[in-house]
Fold each of these.
Amino acid sequence: MATITAKTFLITGVSSGLGRAFAEGALGAGHRVIGTVRNEGDANTFAALSAGCAYPLILDVTDFAAIPAAVAEAERDAGAVEVLVNNAGYGHEGVLEESSMDDLQRQFAANVYGPVAMMKAVLPGMRTRRSGHIVNVTSMGGFITMPGISFYCGSKFALEGISEALGKEVADFGIRVTALAPGQFRTDWAGRSMDRTPRSISDYDAVMDPIRAARQAKSGNQPGDPAKAAQALLAIVDAETPPVRLFLGEDALGVVHQKLDAMKAEIAAWDALSRSTSFAS
């Protein structure tokens, strides 16, 4: 039987959903996990998962100033972070015209700025050690789009781009960066965890009302299994050459292939205009 080399993971948002599944999977495989939670009760629950291996860290990832000291303290207890999994975040549902700039700022604070602050906290140590793996949990909504979640898609597109560019910056230091893009998994993402802007403009009823109703009806019945997502995470962390981007779920793969086909067709259709903008030779 093969033995694993235990690593120290830092996973944000381990109280529920994919974050909890990722933490349980890593702990089950023999790793140490620092898990961020929002309160003392969740900290106690997380610590009880595995005595001596589950290290709760009370931290709001949108409190950017608190992150460096909190991560340093956690590393003193659990060891240097070898794998960062930026999982914490939430979905905002709302037509762009109906949604506020405050909605946009909160969405990007949780889904983009917080993950970036976490990466900046662990990168100096990873760079010094010349090793490490950063996994940013994005979404199929970081590559394809759907009406009614424009702010969410924007935040995940941003994190996808940051992940890909960062991977090129740190590759020579032995640090790998993967964007992990789930489809629909059976979590509370579309339920209690989603922030919904109230409807106010009737022109959008035909587009938005069926989408909102369908999303609420599907909550709790999504096809993806969080425990299997956790095993996929462990597989890419163990891989000698991990992917830059990994889509999770048949639903994600289906819509991604549809978009790629549509993009190729559109690029071909407008090829001549695209090429028309150069100085004449």
Note: The mean pLDDT is 94.
Amino acid sequence: MHIYIMTDLESVAGVRDFPDWCVPDGRCYEQATRLLTLEVNAAIEGFAAAGATEFMVADGHGRGAIEIELLDRRADMRRGWPQGWPLGLDDGGDYDYLAFVGQHAKAGTEFAHLAHTQGLNYIDLSVNGVSIGEFGQLAMCASELGLRTIFGAGGLAFTVEAQALVAGIETVAVKRGLRPGSGDEMTTAQYEHRNAAAVHVQPERAREMIRDGAQRALRRAQTEDFGIIPLQAPFERVARFRPAKDGEPTTISRESHPTSVIGMMNLPFDRQPEA
């Protein structure tokens, strides 16, 4: 069995804020990337215990956050998607399942730690009226391909989001945000510092939880039918964006595709001032 593991950095246990932990010139960035890679290794151990033999680890954060020398030797690492969405899921890897490690909640999520969607300038993104984030975008693409999404580890708010979108998915929460409200009224610069308060699971314990959760997910996937999001064409994407600074308007973009979520996700945004 071949598992595609999409990774991100913000919702790894111990990763605390954007400026110090999530950008390459941050003082704690190397520690953050090590923590992420160890969480990925824990997921690989769990999947392997349930029978998986091949692993593609997608380095999905910013300018990169997987420490390849620390990565489980059974895994390959992918960085870069020249064809855009679905981020390599259709590149001939013959993947059996999709999983996520380090995944954060979508922009505007209440009680979420470091929540955002792609950039910090998003207020919301929806497909056919369903608000989604980075997890939802790739999980929808996978569903169009018939690839089941079976596991996700990250913040508690993310796990709630994932369970609402993918019925039956196995999730593990390794931190929980503390701030109420959405922050939709904020500029991009203001929102960057909004959601830094959280309670973290101790990293060794978090990795044990991820290992156990990944094993459960794959064992369940072999006997239970879950992991596909029902999709209904045509598809409309609506995105709302924050102003860069006070006094500027929010903007909105609407795009559609008659048959394909993947095709729609690859359309450029046509941003206009929001009425």
Note: Helices lie at 18-21, 29-49, 134-144, 156-165, 188-192, 203-221, 261-265.
